[in-house]
Amino acid sequence: MNNSDKVYQVLLKQSMETIARQIQSLEQKNRGLRALSDKTTVEIEGLKLQYNEIVNTLKNYQERINVSDRKEAKLDKLDEKSERITKEQQEHHDQINTLNQAQNKMKTARGKRKVAKEIRKQQEIIRKLQKKNARIDKRQKAIMLPAFYRDQKRSQLISKQEAKVKQVAANMQDNQELQAMLDLNKTSGRIKSVVHDIKGAYYQKRLNHSQEVLDTMKNSNLNITIRGANAITISKKAVNGLRNAVDRGKDAILNLLDENINTTTKQPTMR
What we know:
single chain; two-stranded antiparallel ribbon; 7 helices
């Protein structure tokens, strides 16, 4: 494994630590609350998905992120230099092992001191070589950071969108379960069923859109930004209409919903 691969893995581990702290902070802020908001739940779930993605990347590591040809050439030269330094370090470690064996055979204090002095000399050489390699690590890290940050930002946005899809699907399923529990022989049950129909239609639209956005994000090789805001407004006229719509059946309710709900949804922008 080249030195640049090792540096890249360090970057991944540092990113994992940052994500873990973010998750912990969000969970602590919501500790003691009866229920997390969908927004916070999505944020936490998205971070967990991104964290697990990095865990799997490290577990099944193949190669680091690619950079421009010019930067790749620089990384290759630094890899070669690091490899030479590492070999030199090993040679000095081998010399120390040999000196330790010789020191154990010495019979006089004077002989032991001479060998100990040589061991310290070899150790100092190793420390200097380690500093050289540390400087190489910093240079390679600086070269890879811009591409690494872009890659992690993309992963963060996709993971958050995946969490949105899961959350909307979960809300839709819960809504269906609650609706199934209603007693439709009672007026209150029929009214509540209408409300669940409205919610179900809303969740379905959100799910379709969220999945569409996710597919677009995954299929794009460009940088992703999300612009816009979600907004839903139901007019007073629509509310009054809903009160009178119980006996008109589900189709009438859904038609009323389509006519009176004004939605503005987030769109992915590729750049």
